[in-house]
Design goal:
single chain, 419 residues, alpha/beta, Rossmann fold, 2 domains, 7-stranded mixed beta sheet, 7-stranded parallel beta sheet, 14 strands, binds NADPH dihydro-nicotinamide-adenine-dinucleotide phosphate
């Protein structure tokens, strides 16, 4: 019998849904590069259901219990008194999602002598201290590609929202206004702009493909260059360094993993090299950007806007400055957790567990760490080390009253000027 601890985000405040906005999901068989979607032997959920929250249980309970395993599901994940800290001591498998990550620090791993497998039900395993996992021989796996396209759609939405000033304009409608000048004084067309991605992996390349029809000039920087045919097809300009790329871009989208090489990449020095009035969209990881440098740049006007769904830590404290900084288009970490993506990452998690229990190899594209070293996708896209430092701060979120979300002061409706 194995004990599986699964950390998931809370159910909706209105309760677990009884019905959904739509009745079905489109049926996909392959990802754009030909990789097959998850292939578990079976699933015990209806695609389109809310699986990523506590009551959804990633659709795993029946499967695990029918094989005699114990499943513990909790959202209480941060701090030494959390349910996670209590349950991890005899757990063999830890599952969580980047949206509500169980920070598998060296300390937590040290408290879990039986831990053998850490699964990210999603993409991005930076919430695990990969070095500590390597040292202990723990396998780390994630569901590669499961939500890459979901995120790329979100990136396009955020680029358009920022450049066209969508959210503040929407706010005027809700406030009962018709303040066209207030809405458009920061509104531009994307057409003709220089748009660049830091990393052209699964998400980065999908963003480039989706931005192409907007008649923009496309740029990228990456550790490995894309095939020449792809560069030509999309008219891409490759940059050897991120510095070279940001100098010419009006919009920069960040799509690389967080690892020691990318932590704090967008700091004061790099942002100073950007064009004044550039936009950053970061759906990769909060820690790739220096928190306070972003706030400073938005206040000074060096950046015209910043949007994203990734923060550090998660959940961020209620007084995190990104909640209230000017010209932001932030959401909680949701881009990779659409109901469509959930059915894929739940199925992928089940596939990984079936392989583990049946002693079959886990697909190499799902592997991040195996047999004490970076493996599979981890070997290609990550560098060794630890990016979990500072995650203890996530415990502060709980300490604040649940009914007091930080609300940004909305601008008062100004009197119309008549000339
Ligand atoms: P991929 O592994 O397909 O792509 C990652 C790319 O980043 C690779 O091309 C890799 O280069 C490149 N890269 C790594 N380090 C650097 C660096 N220092 N400079 C430039 N490029 C670098 O992953 P995905 O595209 O699917 O996902 C990327 C990241 O997006 C995830 O790691 C995760 O952090 C985040 N994500 C966010 C989600 C959300 O919900 N917001 C959901 C899913 C992912 P190479 O391999 O060529 O060395």
């Amino acid at each position: 019998m194995s004990k599986v601890v699964c950390v998931l985000y809370d159910d909706p405040v209105t309760g677990y849904p009884k019905k959904y906005a739509r009745d079905d999901l489109p049926k996909l068989t392959h990802y754009p590069d030909g990789q097959s979607l998850p292939t578990p032997q079976g699933i015990d959920f209806k695609p389109g259901a809310l699986l990523g929250s506590v009551s959804g249980e990633l659709g795993l309970r029946k499967f695990l219990e029918s094989r005699g395993h114990k499943l513990v599901v909790t959202s209480d994940k941060d701090g030494p008194k959390s349910r996670l800290a209590k349950e991890i001591v005899d757990a063999e498998i830890l599952i969580s999602q980047p949206f509500w990550p169980a920070y598998a620090t060296a300390d937590l791993i040290g408290k879990a002598p039986k831990l053998k497998l850490i699964v990210t039900a999603g993409i991005g395993s930076d919430h695990t201290d990969l070095q500590a996992a390597m040292n202990r021989g723990i396998t780390v796996a994630e569901v590669t590609y499961c939500n890459s396209i979901s995120v790329s759609e979100h990136v396009v939405m955020m680029i358009l929202s920022l450049v066209r000033n969508y959210i503040p304009s929407h706010d005027w409608v809700v406030k009962g206004g018709w303040n066209i000048a207030d809405c458009v004084e920061r509104s531009y067309d994307v057409e003709g702009m220089n748009v660049g991605t830091v990393a052209a992996g699964r998400i980065g390349l999908a963003v480039l493909r989706r931005m192409k029809p907007f008649d923009v000039k496309l740029h990228y920087t990456d550790r490995h260059r894309l095939p020449e045919s792809v560069e030509q097809e999309l008219g891409l300009t490759f940059h050897q360094s991120v510095e070279s790329m940001v100098r010419v871009c009006d919009v920069v989208t960040i799509n690389c993993p967080l690892h020691p090489e990318t932590e704090g990449m967008f700091n004061d020095a790099l942002i100073a090299k950007m064009k004044r009035g550039a936009y950053i969209v970061n759906t990769a990881r909060g820690k790739i950007c220096d928190r306070d440098a972003i706030v400073r740049a938005l206040k000074s006007g060096q950046l015209a806007g910043y949007a994203g769904d990734v923060w550090f830590p998660q959940p961020p404290p209620r007084n995190h400055p990104w909640r209230t900084m000017p010209h932001e288009g932030m959401t909680p970490h949701i881009s990779g957790s659409s109901l469509s993506a959930q059915s894929r990452y739940a199925a992928g998690t089940r596939e990984i567990l079936e392989c583990y229990f049946d002693r079959r190899p886990i697909r190499s594209e799902y592997l991040i760490v195996d047999r004490g070293q970076l493996a599979g996708t981890g070997k290609h896209s990550y560098s060794a080390g630890n990016a979990t430092r500072g995650s203890e701060e996530a415990a502060k979120f709980k300490a604040a009253p649940a009914s007091a979300p930080a609300a940004k002061k909305k601008p008062k409706a100004r009197k119309k000027k008549t000339r």
